[in-house]
Structure formats: C-alpha cells, structure tokens
Design goal:
- The complex is a heterodimer of chains A (about 300) and B (about 280).
- With about 300 residues, chain A is mainly α.
- Chain A is built from 13 helices and no strands.
- Chain B is α/β, with parallel strands linked by helices and about 280 residues long.
- In chain B, the strands form 3 sheets. A 6-stranded mixed beta sheet of chain B has the order 6-7-8-3-9-10, with helices on both faces.
- In chain B, helix 2 (about 100-110) packs across helix 3, helix 2 packs parallel to helix 4 and helix 4 (about 150-160) runs parallel beside helix 5.
- The chains are: A mainly alpha (about 300), B alpha/beta (about 280).
- At the A-B interface, helix 2, helix 6, helix 7, helix 8 and helix 10 of A face helix 2 and helix 4 of B.
Chain lengths: ~300, ~280
C-alpha cells in the first residue's frame, strides 16, 4: 500500500514519452468536456451521454468485424448514436424512453457483432474502462483535430445554441434554427463522448462530461463562470487521476471518477452553506419561490 | 395614415378537414393594443405562430412591417425583425446556471452566431437598461429557477423589449400569476405601447386585467371570429352568435363577465401545448 503513492515512482513515470502523450491527450479532453458539459447539464441529457457512450461499443465491434480501426468505429458509433437520440427524442418527456430503447437495441447488436468476429476480441476492448496511456502519436493528432473541431464549431454556434437549450420557445420566435442546432449539438456531444471513452472508458465517461459541469452549476448561476469552472474541474479530475494512477499502475478510471465526485460533493456543500446564509439573511424565501414556479 | 404594422388578408388556416379560421382580414396599427380571445383550440396561439413565420397560412397573406420594412413571414425563413415575444410563465423550466441578465441578454443578441465578445460593454448597458425599465434589478442576478412566477415574467418582458420591437406578441403572459403580478406585468406592457408606440397583440383567455388598455378585440370561436372594439365584440349578441348558443355578457364595475352554458366560455386552466424544440 505504501507504493500506492510512491512519489519517486510517479516522477519517474512522468518522464516517459507515452505518459506525456497521455497527459496531453487528457488535457485536450478536459477542455472539450469542460466546455460541452454545462450545455449537457442544462439540456438535462446526462442519460443521453451515457447511452451514446455505451453505443461506442457497438461501433467498435462493427469496426473490428469489418477490419477498420476500433477508435474510428467508436467515434462513428458515438456520432450515429447521438444523432439518432437527438432525432428520435423530440419531446423531452419522451427522451428517457427513447434512449432506453435505442441503447438496448444497440448493445444487442454490438454483442452479436462481437460474436461474429472470428478472432479474440478481449484485448481490443480497453474501451470499457479506458486506457489513455495507450494513445500513440497518431491518435494524439486525431484527438487534437477532434478537439479543435468541437471547440471551433461551438464557438461559432454558442449563443444561439445556448438560447435554444435554455429557452427554446423564445429562441424559435427570434428565428434561432432550434431544430437544426440540436442535431449539430448531438454530433459535438458524440465526438466529445468518443474522446472521453478513449480515456476513462464507456462506463465512466459521464465523470468527465457531466460531473464537473454539474458541480460548477451548483456554485454559480452564470453560464460563463460555469463553463470556466467546469473546464478547471474536468482538467483537475482527468490530469490528477492519471498522475495518481501512475505509481500503483492502476487503471485511471477510479481515480478520475473519485476526484470528479469529490469536487462535486464539495460544490454541493458550498451551495448549501450559501443558501443557508442567504436564508438567514432573510432575502430569499425558497419555499414561496418554489411554490410559485410549480404552478 | 401610416401603414399598419400587421396586415392579414383573406387568411385561412386549416389542419386537414378542420378549419381554424378563414377569410380573416386584420390590421393592427402602430401603438394599437389588440386582445385575442377565444376558447381552447380556437387558433389563438397559432395566429402568433403565423406572425412569427413558424406556421404557413393555408391561403391568404400576412405582412409584419418592422422598421419600415415589410417582411413576409415564411416558415423556415428568418423570423421577422422588430418583433418581441412573451410566452406564458413556466413554459420552460430554467436550468440552475441561468440568471435574469442572461435571459435578457439572449433576447438582445441570442439569435446571432458566435460567442459575442465584441460590443460586450454596449450589450451590458442595454441589458441593464431593460432590466431597470421593468424594476427587476433586485433579482436579475439570481438564478431564474429560484424566482417567483411574477419575477420571471417581469424578466420576460425585459427580454422581449430589449430588442426595441415595433410589435409585441404576448401569448397568455399573465397566466398563473396572482392579481398583483398580473397588474404589474400588464402595466409594463402597456407603458411600452404608450411610450414607444409598440403595437401589442395580446393572446389571453381573460380580458379584464388588460381591459382598460384594449383598443380592439379579435374573438375566435370554432372557425368563426369577430373583430371590433371591446364594446362591439363583448356583447351578448355578438358572443351568442359566435358560440351559437345563449351567452350573457355582464359588465360589473368596469369588468366584463361572460356566462353561458358553453363550458369552454369560462376557462381557467393553462392550455395549448407549445411546439417542443
């Protein structure tokens, strides 16, 4: 247990090329996840992100079968899944069930494709828990290009997208192409999800795409500040998680998710203390406000 | 005589075999306050969708003149400029990380592409001005999700007015507000009409809160409609003809009360679903 946090071992590992490549990849992911996260939280699509992440498995299995790279298959799977969920889940009240239906079918297909694959698939599936350290130079380029693409498109559509997400009725009245923007956003989320899958794996991608943003939204009500905080939280979680995993040589996922969750807990505590302080100041009447908005 | 800001000619709208209304001619002048009344499903909100270019007429034409420029509202095309829109309270559930200032800011330039770093100072000034105008300064920086319905609707008014519209479309903006807030919000809208000459098209199921401001009433019932001053339309004779049954219109203390066997005449429920994005 003492070499769990062996500083010397950790520092030596940090000098390795592949570790540095991994950290760089993770840093790109942190920015992408941090920026996309608040929009995901505001649109209440955590479950959609989870569904999209799981369907990267189907894409990867298909890629394995037809003989293209698993990474490409995962990316394609994520983008197709995200688009499908966006197009089928029109009404927010139906979104839950649409995701459930698509998710189950997609996973079934994935299992079938994997069964069709003649070779041994086990070692190709770092996808489920992630293996950022396995990212090579070529993949780093793909990461960088995807990251720049997501951030670039987001910068272009940010204002109308935010409008369409938080206030769709008035946004439509102002000529914002709400129906067009949602699939665009879905594709961006799909790409971000595929990047996340590569790092922390299918099962834990929410720890980077949702948890940091959810934490940020607890402590600020400004969308801009929430985005900045969310990037910082995501970076701390993913970089911190990788560094801590080096000495024990453990998978990074538990470290990343634990850091992200601790940040989330701290933010909840801060929010609660603030609210208590405001209440005792007699400014806010939360019960009255809550009743009024429920009507 | 200046051009009307809204001009509807020979307009009809049907969905399949069902005709919402047909042969409608309507002019709304600058500075005019038009109340649109009628039971559920009579096409009140659909009329707003037509004016916003979201719904195509089955036949006829609609022009929304803003900034001296006539725009034909075409579905899928750009929304007519110079048009403000106030939805009913609670039509969207606001996320936690969104304040009144953000909502009003989106009303100003949320339809533009990009992040909007340029002109940030000017933007802040105009948003602050719009918030001051509805006396929402005290709560505009709190999360919208924690505000009362009345506070949210004040900010909705600021959001619609910050773009300096020539036409203000209101879709049941007073619904689910208490009497004091109904008065406050409708006074804000009326003040804008008086001071800036903004035409107001006010969809409501309850005319009394705005009765003293109303110049003209459009009353829609089952494909039939009547247009005129409140004194012309809100009469037992006119409404009985529209509802095709006996309806009594009673005026008590400056208020108009409509009573009749038709269950849809007196309604108090929030209604008409909005197109979900």
């Amino acid at each position: 247990m003492e070499d769990f946090f062996d500083l010397d071992l950790m520092l030596r590992a940090l000098e390795l090329d592949f570790v540095q490549t991994g950290l760089l990849t993770a840093a790109i992911l942190g920015v992408v996840a941090g920026v996309v996260g608040p929009l995901i939280v505001m649109r209440r699509m955590a479950f959609a992100v989870h569904g999209t992440a799981e369907l990267t498995f189907t894409g990867a299995a298909a890629a394995l079968l037809v003989g293209v790279s698993v990474e490409f298959g995962a990316l394609a799977g994520a983008v197709i899944a995200a688009l499908l969920l966006a197009l089928l889940g029109g009404r927010s009240s139906e979104q839950d069930s649409v995701i459930g239906a698509v998710l189950a079918f997609g996973l079934g297909i994935g299992v079938f494709l994997l069964w069709l694959y003649p070779g041994r698939a086990g070692n190709k599936f770092g996808l489920l828990v992630g293996q950022v350290i396995a990212v090579d130079e070529a993949n780093l380029m793909v990461f960088a290009v995807s990251g720049v693409l997501v951030i670039g498109v987001l910068a272009l559509v940010y204002r109308p997208l935010l409008f369409a997400i938080v206030d769709p009725v008035v946004a439509a009245s102002r000529g914002v192409p709400v129906r067009l923007l949602m699939p665009v956003f879905a594709v961006l989320v799909g790409i971000a999800t595929a990047l996340g899958v590569r790092t922390v794996g299918v099962l834990l991608v929410i720890a980077l795409l949702v948890t940091p943003a959810a934490a940020a939204c607890r402590v600020t009500s400004s969308p801009v500040v929430a985005t900045v905080l969310s990037v910082i939280f995501a970076e701390v979680a993913v970089l911190g998680g990788i560094v801590l995993s080096l000495a024990p040589g453990a998978p990074i996922s538990p470290f990343v998710t634990t850091i992200a969750f601790l940040i989330y807990l701290v933010c909840r505590v801060i929010e609660r203390r603030r609210r208590v302080a405001t209440r005792s100041g007699g400014q806010l009447k939360p019960t009255a406000a809550a009743t009024a908005t429920r009507q | 005589m200046t051009e009307p800001v809204i001009r509807i000619r020979d307009a009809s709208l049907s969905f399949g075999p069902r005709t919402l209304w047909s042969g409608m001619n309507l002019d709304v002048e600058r500075g005019e306050f038009l109340a649109v009344l009628g039971p559920n499903g009579s096409g009140k909100s659909t009329l707003l969708s037509v004016l916003l270019g979201q719904q195509r007429l089955s036949s006829g034409t609609v022009h929304v003149a803003a900034r001296g420029q006539e725009i034909r509202a075409v579905p899928g095309g750009p929304a007519p400029r110079g048009v403000g829109y106030i939805p009913q309270q609670g039509v969207v559930e606001f996320p936690h990380a969104l304040r009144g200032t953000d909502l009003v800011g989106l009303g100003l330039d949320g339809h533009r592409w990009g992040i909007g770093l340029r002109g940030a100072a000017e933007r802040r000034r105009r948003v602050a001005e719009a918030i001051d105008a509805v006396s929402a300064g005290a709560f505009a920086n709190r999360p919208l999700s924690l505000l009362s319905g009345g506070e949210q609707q004040r900010l909705r008014v600021a959001q619609a007015l910050v773009g300096e519209p020539d036409v203000l479309l209101c879709d049941e903006p007073l619904l689910s507000l208490d009497i004091a807030n109904q008065r406050a919000v409708s006074e804000l809208i009326e003040r804008r009409r008086r001071e800036a000459g903004t035409a107001v098209l006010f969809v409501t199921h309850e005319i009394n809160p705005v009765l003293s401001y109303v110049d003209k009433v459009l009353y829609l019932v089952d494909g039939r409609f009547s247009i005129g001053s409140p004194d012309e339309v809100m009469t037992s004779a006119t409404l009985s003809a529209l509802y095709r049954t006996t309806v009594d219109v009673v005026r008590i203390g400056g208020q108009i009360h409509v009573t009749g066997p038709h269950s849809a005449v007196c309604e108090d429920d929030p209604h008409h679903s909005h197109p979900q994005a």
